[in-house]
Amino acid sequence: MSNNVNTPVKKTVKKPASGNGAGSGAKKQHRNERAHQLKVYAIGSVLILLAIVLFANILIDKLLGNALTFDFSVQRSNVISETSVKFLESLPQDTKIRIVGLFERPESFYDTKYQYIVPILDDYAKKSNGKVSVEYYDIQKNPGIIQSLDPNGAYDLSTLSGWYAVSYNGKLDVIDPLSCYTIDTEILNQYNKYVATGINTEYTFTNSMMSLVKGFTNKAYFVTGLKENGSTQLKKMMNSMGIEAADIDATAAFKVPEDCNLLVLNGPNTDITENMYAEIKAYVEKGGKVIVAVDYSADNVTESFKNLNRLLNDMNINVEHCLVTENDPAYQLNTQINDSQADIADRYKDFTSEKRVHITLARPVTATAAKNDNYTTYPVLMTSDKATKSIADEDNKAKEIESAQNVINVAMHSYYNIDNAGEIYVFGTVNFTSDVYFEQFTTNDRNADFIKSAVRSMLPTSAKYNIDIPVKKLDGNRLNQNKATTTVSTTVMIVFMIVLPFILSSMAVIVYNRRKNL
């Protein structure tokens, strides 16, 4: 038996080299090329997507920009109200109203006088169902538009570049963009700067269209040439009630026109002439209607209005040459003795929803001692029972002339008892008629309501149609909290600026990691 033990022979097995083979290198190169292609495709896809979004945005803005415009402001300053929509709906379907801007449509109109005009005019066109069109023509480049709108040259449109023309059925109205705002007159007069206090665009254009389509039912003449206050805002209110406004000069040949339904003396600072006294008296006795508003200010402290008072005295009214001083703190505004409130007499309490109205620098308007039985006279506005009278001293400051405290009338109403009853409203303050007042407090004010009611009471046919659109506050771009609350705005911001980008980025990372090893 053999004692030899067989020793096993070791076999050497070669291990494949890690990553050094030709096949492994080809595979790695293939993966790198694929990853590079993925990156190129990803970047290319993003660029193509951005290009598509940009193109679609431009295309949609051109085709549907107006339709996709939304106004979430508190005042709805860029869209027309339901009042204007109903007016447009009431017009026959074949109505064609052209609103033409006599200038090229501005590419950017923000921070310009057109900021609160261009968008709202677009809304007129959008909601009119084809009844209103809005166009823009540079009259230097397209002079033919002038002949088209105004073939008789009545408005001299060549001088109105930058204005708007409203055309209907051969009739034309022109609108200064600045008339679409209420302006702080005091700043304008003192510094020659236009500072807007309110937005009047819809009021101005809707009433312009209404006047052209339906015409006026009455005509009011405003007396000029007596160093009077401006009447632009009161004229607009008249227009909104279907009353055409025109001017009549206080010349030596003054004569009340035959078509005058209402005569307005708004804030004269000098007296009427002898001829005017006779003309206006005869006008009232034939049934004419008159509004007179004066105050006691630095412009007229030396004026006692002798001839004007002769006219008013015939109607049992006298405007005194002094100033009303209100001593009751409950009636004062901002503790001012010459800027206060006045009570409305019961007979006129329905003229406004407020119990009191605003008076400033008022003259007493009292009944005459001698009574003309042809006229019936009533007090309209009264102070508290603590009012006194003052005059201006040498330094133009109020100096008390009566210490006894009483109720003082600051407005009266008188009407002729015979035949067709001419009548007159006399105000001892211009707070119901002047631009200075309405451009500060707007035509939404209680005083505006009061004067419009007074006019309607004299000219009842003026109520045949009435489009009364409130002036919008200039802070009209604040978000409406009922439509775009802080919570909603914050949520939208988080979703679009944080959540969606995070989701898309996460999806991109996941897809890339899964596909990079394929």
Q: What do you see in this structure?
A:
The protein contains twelve helices and 22 strands. With 518 residues, it is α+β, with helices and mostly antiparallel strands. The chain has a domain at 218-473: Class I glutamine amidotransferase (GATase) domain (Rossmann fold, 3-Layer(aba) Sandwich). Strands 7, 8, 9, 10, 13, 14, 15, 17, 20 and 21 form a ten-stranded mixed beta sheet that branches. Strands 2-1-3-4 form a four-stranded mixed beta sheet. The chain has a three-stranded antiparallel beta sheet with strand order 5-6-22, with helices on one face. Helix 8 packs parallel to helix 9 (306-313).
| Percentage of residues in strands | 15-25%
Fraction of helical residues: 25-40%
Using DSSP, what is the number of strands? Answer: 22
- Summed up, the helix count is 12
Radius of gyration: 37 Å
The CATH topology of the domain at 218-473:
Rossmann fold
Q: Based on CA inertia axes, which overall geometry fits?
A: elongated
Distance between the amino and carboxyl termini: 65 Å
CATH homologous superfamily caption of the domain at 218-473: Class I glutamine amidotransferase (GATase) domain
Report mean pLDDT, rounded to a whole number: 83
Low-confidence stretches: 1-5
